[in-house]
User: Fold this.
Amino acid sequence: MAAPFAYPNHWGIHKRMNFADLGLSPDLLAAVADAGYTEPTPIQAQAIPPVLMMKDIIGIAQTGTGKTASFVLPMIDIMASGRRRALMPRSLILAPTRELAAQVAENFEKYGKNHDLKLALLIGGVQMGDQVKALNEGVDVLIATPGRLMDLFERGKILLNGCELLVIDEADRMLDMGFIPDIEFICDKLPENRQTMLFSATMPPPIEKLAKKFLKSPKRIEVSRAATTNKDITAFKVPVKSRQKRETLRWLLRHDHVETAIIFANRKTTVRELNKSLQSHGFASSEIHGDMDQSSRLKELDRFKKGEVNILVASDVAARGLDIKGVSHVFNFDTPWHPDDYVHRIGRTGRAGAKGRAFTFVAEEDGEAIANVEKLTGKEIPVFGKKDVRVELVEPSKEEDRPRREERKAREDRPERSERSERPARPKPERKAEDKPAKARKPRRDDAREDERGKPGEWNGPVPGFLEVSAG
Ligand code: ADP
Ligand code: MG
Assistant:
């Protein structure tokens, strides 16, 4: 048997649990074992038994704590009995984004491989024909984004009155995305007599209201205080001038032992421009944001998961809840406007017990946002460079490099706009043959070599000013 998964204490249980203790069927336990899971996470341990007893559930646990399996596993056993009927899905899972819905479907496929269950995935950006065909043939589990479901419902292509089980996943994100009216509409179309589960990382008041309206004496399972952040994540804030954000980011990418990173920005345009800028500096990066169609989003995500690129620049909507394992770093290129997004963003690292680091850039215009984040999380985020500087700083050395350095500095200091317009003319740094494209370069040794060869487009400037900032 594989070594038991060690749960950090902050997850709140000290007793070791087995999946076999939870009342799941042998076929399902076999699939779980094949997936490599040896122990349920706390939300799974607490949610699975009452879900199997057909109770309504509110599950609150931070991102990355395994909420998906806490409803997918019991649902597989519940759905195992009963019959499919055309146009009338037997259960419904609502997820806020296409990626999240696709991820839930993947979970069903993984754990449901020993069961005969029919799934349909109803998401925007995918041909509707196949989805309608699947519905006609009858499905056990319908996984949908609210928009697409409303679409089909209004065209009479789907009946919701045979749906005896509803899951509202990532409810707080639904709220951010304005889906609450859609969810209310959908809930009203479902039979009164049904089981309802709601999962969320945080419980803002409108979600409490929604739960009160549509759940029947739910069992509330709260794994750790909402909006606290994971102890496996070392978080820093980095005071920086707006125009030095890119330079500072590159410095950190090269000097903080970055293996894989997600960089969040508040605006789609920033995501696009930042990705281009990183690529022009020789980083293996890609982007994901709400303006991309479904297939390119999944393609980029796949490239990241496979390690073809090790840096993903993302917007909140595109990245919410995405299950990306082993991300060593999260960078908030902007402090998120909604403090809940902070929790979700940095939850991309430090998942399932692994350690991670999160850096939040704070320029003048981020001042109010960071105050809100610290209010929500209940603690001040330490300033990077004051206590934990893991790496030695590279000295700005070599006299002969000085003119180039100064020329470069002048270029860097220009506003972002000019960098954009001059980009086509900038030479792309050629990559060393032994340089794995998927890995951010291990900093010091490579940088020293880089310096000797005087490659264009690479960092050679002074240590960024943020390390000298003295005010907390
Ligand atoms: P959440 O929905 O709470 O953000 P997910 O359901 O996406 O979290 O799960 C987070 C990660 O933890 C996934 O990579 C998942 O495969 C993994 N995971 C889930 N349950 C377990 C478990 N019991 N043991 C180990 N890893 C798990
Ligand atoms: Mg989730």
